[in-house]
């Protein structure tokens, strides 16, 4: 078989280069280096947000009852426990599940990588929105400690606050969205999706116990989100949006490595990038050989008929009825589809599963009923 040295864009790209540039390009295509680089950048960006960025300070009325709740020092779920429930617990459970099920190295790898990307992407996006929106928390007045004589019926700024603790004061403008909520759903939501895929909860007649196990992490995340309203750190709007954000990012990260939950193979991740890169198809009159864009692997029977027709046309002979019959039979029993990627076909039950392998244009023939 010819080796596929095309980039995902469909052209040869840099991977066909024989020098060191080609080596780097092939390494980039065959590994998850881009994912790890993105993960490192997300972590670095989050650290910068936490230590060097102050939020936008929205103006407020000091007699606004919506921001006059007490500042609770003893939180129901403090930050350290939020990290434990939202990140450490899902990580431990995933490692135990994958170890006990003797999962392949590739499955182990992409599952943990997907969880980490979900968590750090959520942290970065959540804090970016918090600082940009600058919505006051329900306990802002207790944090701010307005100076005596501050007018009550006019909009005031952060300048009237007397609180000297930098974090306590500025964190009062980071209400939207709820970070605890988004973080909890980014980790526990990813765990719930993993459970749902491993146990095929959307398969007909699935046991209720499996479905309950899959939604268990979501209940835990919801309780963490609700605790933020009980501590007067956020209102319902904040925790609802934070929960949706965290769950959306968890689903995005999960689907980068696993098929949809309705798939017959939802318990297995997509093919590894190295295997997809190394996999090739025999090319007959491919783009390089024929210099005709869009041509790939075709049926040899079809090509034989075309070659014979061309020979007869050159000789001035009458069209070969036998060839016409063969062509008609071929067209009657097949249907042709051209695609811009390599395709693997597998069958399970009555379903045909198509695995996409970016790399080359070709034509496949599928006989109906097979």
TrEMBL record:
It is a multi-pass membrane protein. Keywords: Membrane, Transmembrane, Transmembrane helix. GO terms for molecular function: phosphatidate phosphatase activity. Residues 282-292, 313-338 have a biased composition (Basic and acidic residues). Gene3D superfamilies: Phosphatidic acid phosphatase type 2/haloperoxidase (1.20.144.10). It is found in: Membrane. Residues 112-254 form the Phosphatidic acid phosphatase type 2/haloperoxidase domain. Residues 299-312 have a biased composition (Acidic residues). The chain crosses the membrane at residues 36-56, 77-100, 106-125, 183-202, 208-229, 236-254. CDD domains: PAP2_containing_1_like. One of its GO terms (cellular component) is membrane. Residues 281-346 are annotated as: Disordered. GO terms for biological process: phospholipid dephosphorylation; phospholipid metabolic process. Belongs to the PA-phosphatase related phosphoesterase family. This is PAP2 domain-containing protein. It comes from Diplocarpon coronariae.
